[in-house]
Design a protein that fits this description.
Chains A, B: This is Glucokinase. Two copies of one chain form a homodimer. Chain A has helices at about 35-40, 45-55, 95-105, 115-125, 185, 190-200, 210-215, 220-230, 235-255, 275-285, 290, 305-315, and strands at about 5-10, 15-20, 25-35, 65-70, 75, 80-85, 110-115, 135-140, 145-150, 150-155, 260-265, 295-300. By secondary structure, chain A is an alpha/beta fold. The first copy, chain A, folds into two domains: about 5-120 and about 305-320, ATPase, nucleotide binding domain (Nucleotidyltransferase, domain 5); about 130-300, 2-Layer Sandwich (Nucleotidyltransferase, domain 5). A five-stranded mixed beta sheet of chain A has the order 3-2-1-4-7. Chain A is globular.
Chain lengths: ~325, ~325
């Protein structure tokens, strides 16, 4: 009988769970608030309890499952199944998530980086179209990446896919990583607000965005894009700059990988075709001729489900 | 009995051949001038004749060989074994190299891009140390790349590894590809001379390099590096700029792939540790923290043999 997969998407505010068929159809979904108190020591026990509780609730037994996959922030040792340096989980020391979750649930467990897992989700059931060569860029609070070549994630020595830290402007904005001019500082939600604030200072003309900023109103990336769509001049200056750097990074990445698709996801990608078109115009300007005519930019399709679906796909390695 | 491999490195001026053991030891080497007359129509027959002639000479039979591998410029269809757009070979129309060489020699044949093949050579027997994740940048007349992830070349849709056309300076020097600011325009032998000429125009102080340029002497990348080693001020300004852009590209590439090694080869890399140290300083400045402490930059080790060795390695796919 066909077995099922469990996907866990561990984030700083919520933990999302899903039970999926082997074909990646979501059958059950639930979620939990992430309790990061006490150095995040409740997180793994909460995951174990929640899975066990839901299996009881649905009257399902362990042998109906292939295993559990999980996406998490932090630096991951995939073989050992450990995580370290996940600061928004308060995990400062090494966490033996694989050992603890396998012991607690009686199921096999695999773990990878959250951006990689979202990429696997889009690859399997979303915009990636099950391609062998697909690149994903996630524009959220930060900028993450998941790169697939010859059907496999590019991990390299572990940090492969750190596209948010490709330098798009040498000596540009200071990044949380300590370097200057990382893509993340220009294309993340926070980066877009930063650009807006800087441009508002220089700009003298009419603009609702400028008025809001001068008024001390809270600005978000969504507000910038919404105003740009309404032809606000300053908002369009900001969006142009964001899309220039994004197009540059997409081009440089695609010159290296020449993927079938370069998929743009994450909260900022909610700006939709408005964003995609402008990024694409810059991509066409910067990419190598053979690359710009072959690699196709597109928007992610799965939204918030990419994480649990991709996480579940990690467990497919345990299928007979 | 262990069989042998044939490697062919097809270039615009010479065709290099080698017979290798299955372990990649070169046993015989020879070469031929490339005859690009008549739209390059003599090239494939010359390769066939030369291989057949040498097998007769060495009294070897076809069944002693696994097959033939070849590296070539141009756009390659690896499955069909065709090449198109290899302008320095005068190949403007599709060349059915696989069909013709298999028919002419009676041996199996595989083909890939010259930069990829050189990367495979270094991976197998040189600086790549048979790693699963290694990136190669070749600094010659142009700048080429060969990227290996999870033990496989990254081809993507065919143009993967075009690192010479990653943009390091938006709106910079015009490149032969039609874009502006490609790495190739700053780190190839011709790019280095271009930078030297530009910097010489601005510079007013003492410099042997400036004197040579003002005098109309022919400048090469080697002269620039040699003068820089002798503390010529202007030459060092040029080398600093070259190494800044190279370090930036190495960092951006490594943030994506996080390879064990990033290997720098090609004629320009003859500048040795003098080059490597300065590129490395910039790499450390630009790369993501986890990447700069894990990915290691090194110089290529095989020199001109990288091509035939890597080409021969393509034929290993035919081993039983």
């Amino acid at each position: 009988m066909a077995k099922k997969l469990i996907g866990v998407d561990l984030g700083g505010t919520t933990i999302k769970f899903a039970i999926l068929t082997e074909n990646g159809e979501i059958q059950q979904k639930w979620s939990l608030r992430t309790n990061i108190l006490d150095e995040g020591s409740h997180i793994v026990p909460d995951i174990v309890d929640s899975i066990n509780h839901h299996l009881d609730l649905y009257k399902m037994s362990r042998d109906q499952f292939v295993g559990i996959g999980m996406g998490t922030p932090g630096t991951i040792d995939r073989d050992k199944g450990t995580v370290i340096g996940a600061y928004n989980l308060n995990w400062k020391t090494t966490q033996h998530v694989k050992d603890d979750i396998e012991k607690g649930t009686g199921m096999k467990f695999a773990v990878d980086n959250d951006a990689n897992v979202a990429a696997l989700g889009e690859l399997w059931k979303g915009a990636g179209n099950e391609g062998d060569d697909v690149a994903f860029i996630t524009l959220g609070t930060g900028v993450g990446g998941g790169l697939i070549s010859n059907g496999k994630l590019i991990h390299g020595l572990g940090a492969g896919g750190e596209v948010g830290h490709m330098i798009v402007k040498p000596n540009g904005y200071l990044c949380t990583c300590g370097n200057h001019g990382c893509l993340e500082q220009y294309a993340s939600a926070t980066g877009i607000v930063h650009i807006a604030q800087d441009k508002a200072e220089e700009y003298e003309g009419d603009s609702r965005l400028k008025a809001m900023i001068d008024n001390g109103d809270e600005i978000t990336a969504k507000i910038v894009f919404d105003l740009a769509k309404e032809n606000d001049y300053l908002a369009n200056v900001v969006v142009d700059e964001v899309c220039m750097y994004l197009g540059l990074a997409c081009a440089n990445l695609s010159d290296a990988l020449n993927p079938e698709y370069l998929v743009i996801g994450g909260g900022v990608s909610a700006a939709g075709d408005f964003l995609l078109k402008r990024v694409n115009a810059n991509f066409k300007k910067f990419a190598f001729p053979t690359v710009k005519t072959s690699t196709q930019l597109k928007l992610a399709e799965l939204g918030n489900d990419a994480g649990v679906i991709g996480a579940a796909s990690l467990a497919r390695q345990f299928m007979d």
